[in-house]
Amino acid sequence: MATHPVARARMVAEQLTTLASEVDDRGEFPIRGRALLGETGLMGLTVPKEYGGFGSSLEVVHDVCRILGGACLSTAMVWAMHAQQAAIIADHGSEALKRDVLPKVASGQMFIASVTSERGKGGHILTAVAPLLRSGDSLLLSREAPVVTGGYHAEGYLITMRASEESLPSDVVMVFAHRSQLETKLASGWSALGMRGTHSVGMHLQGRLPACQLFTPEKGFAQIATSTDIPMGHLLWGSCWLGAAEGVYRGMLAILSDPAARRGYNLQSDLFAERLARVRLAIDATGAVIRETLREYAGMRERHALDDAIYMSPGFNLRINQVKVFASEMLFEAVDRLMQVGGLRYGYLKNPRVNLERAFRDLRAASLMYGNDRLLVANGKLALVDRSAFQSFNEG
Ligand SMILES: Cc1cc2nc3c(=O)[nH]c(=O)nc-3n(C[C@H](O)[C@H](O)[C@H](O)COP(=O)(O)OP(=O)(O)OC[C@H]3O[C@@H](n4cnc5c(N)ncnc54)[C@H](O)[C@@H]3O)c2cc1C
């Protein structure tokens, strides 16, 4: 087997391309795709080497997201959210938790789902409703989870809770739970327009956990959220969406360079050229924004410990939110425009050459997955206090 994770991702992507439409048609969790990701070691891409993973750089993670996103966006997103959860454990978990969980993740035995959304607070990650209770040395958990990507198939869960019954909603804690420690009930299905293979079902989770599965960072959950959870989430999701848009763009170009298939298109038309140019502009601009922010974040991780105040700075948080908003809007717009280029036959209708209609449906979810409205409201407030903005311009 190829040794580099990017080469492994290409091998997996070849198979995902053929599995994708089945997963989408049936709205089923990508069981075969998840198994392939385990067999190739890619489930452990963000797990440090000392725990058996690849410990890959963010640049490599970005490339793997794009490759998988270009083949099956649902599988890519299931994987990216898992990679995000594994990174949270590697960055912030107790040593006991890391030794317990990360080798299982690296060997492909464990897929970790994310439980942050909750009824009554929507997607807001920095608040929680259900309280974590204590009984002696144990933690007691009872949690409604309205949308859990791959939740029914997960072997582990990272869950946000209100710190205690007396705590404010803003006092959030995070716990890890093995599936075997929980009673899990399916509360609702996932009949969605797009991202159908993420099988993002509603669940109820209940159980008793040992205290070492509680995350106890010095600066509280905000430290986990700002240094790992949100940056990894927005950068990895954006990279998967980018891969999906790049994939259908490549597919459309292949059609346009095939003399038989391109017969219905007027490639000499200025309107056609302008439309294609705008698609390319949106994809390239998004790629540039993602990679620039990814470099900033990777540089911060090299230079600053994860409890450094820099991760909570307004400028960094604003840019991290911008990546998500920009990627979700621009890439959906790109695919929408590409559908206009492709027309009915290779755009709107399902066809064996390019999966534009699926990409269109999938990418429509991007602005809802942690709602852009919420992020833009937060960014407006951050913009007011971000004194670092355009500083070098003013000084120059
Ligand atoms: C494909 C997919 C996978 C997902 N996977 C998971 C998962 O694995 N785990 C998980 O926990 N969750 C998951 N989610 C849920 C997601 O993170 C959000 O919680 C959810 O999409 C937000 O739902 P909502 O729009 O009902 O809630 P909200 O974000 O609360 O929004 C409700 C409404 O209020 C608007 N709104 C929100 N805040 C503001 C504001 N400040 N100002 C103005 N308007 C505002 C929104 O635009 C929306 O119209 C997933 C969602 C999707 C689409």
Walk me through the structure:
With about 400 residues, this protein is an alpha+beta fold. It has helices spanning about 5-25, 30-40, 60-70, 75-90, 95-105, 220-255, 270-305, 315-350, 355-365, 370-385, 390-395, and strands at about 110-115, 135, 140-150, 155-160, 170-180, 180-190, 200-210. A 4-stranded antiparallel sheet has the order 2-3-7-6, with no helix packed on it. The protein has a 3-stranded mixed sheet with strand order 1-4-5, with helices on one face. A hairpin with a 2-residue loop joins strand 2 and strand 3 (about 140-150). Helix 3 packs across helix 6 and helix 8 (about 315-350) runs antiparallel to helix 10 (about 370-385). The longest helix has about 35 residues, at about 220-255. The relative contact order is 0.11. Flavin-adenine dinucleotide binds near residues 147, 149, 195, 198 and 374. The site of flavin-adenine dinucleotide (FAD) has 22 residues, from strand 1, strand 3 and helix 10.
